[in-house]
């Protein structure tokens, strides 16, 4: 009987030890699951940030492209005014020459030169996009 009790005690001890190991593994798995869940939460948060930035960039690109199209249309729509000014300057110079009068048209030429410079800058900018 002592032998049976001894075996029973040994088996009970092994069963308790195995039970503790299973509980410990369960706890360890629980910790691993918590870590995995925390990593997934980080990934969700980070990917959400990147999605928001991507949306903001796409919106900015669309606004930029729209502004570039408006600038192109604006330049095309305003060319005639510079042609009219150039023609008027040339006509005034010719009339003054025909009449033998000196006329100072430099302020008008400066305005036209500034227009040409800005238009050239704008053309260069639009070529880059």
Structural overview:
The model has no long low-confidence stretch (mean pLDDT 84). 94% of the residues lie in helices and 0% in strands. It is mainly α and 129 residues long. It has two helices and no strands. The chain has helices at residues 2-99, 106-128. It has one domain (2-128). The relative contact order is 0.05.
Write the layout of secondary structure elements.
Elements: H1 2-99, H2 106-128
Short précis:
The protein is built from 2 helices and no strands. With 129 residues, the protein is mainly α.
List keywords for this structure.
single chain; 129 residues; mainly alpha; rod-shaped
Largest sheet: none
Distance between the termini: 96 Å
Quaternary: single chain
Order of H and E elements: HH
Total strands: 0
CA gyration radius, whole angstroms: 42 Å
Classify the beta-strand content into a percent band: under 5%
On the 0-100 scale, what is the average pLDDT?
Answer: 84
Using the alpha-carbon principal axes, give the shape.
Answer: rod-shaped
Query: Which ranges are low-confidence, i.e. pLDDT below 50, for 5 or more consecutive residues?
Result: none
Q: Which structural class fits the helix and strand makeup?
A: mainly alpha
**Portion of residues within helices:** over 70%
Number of domains: 1
SS element count, helices? 2
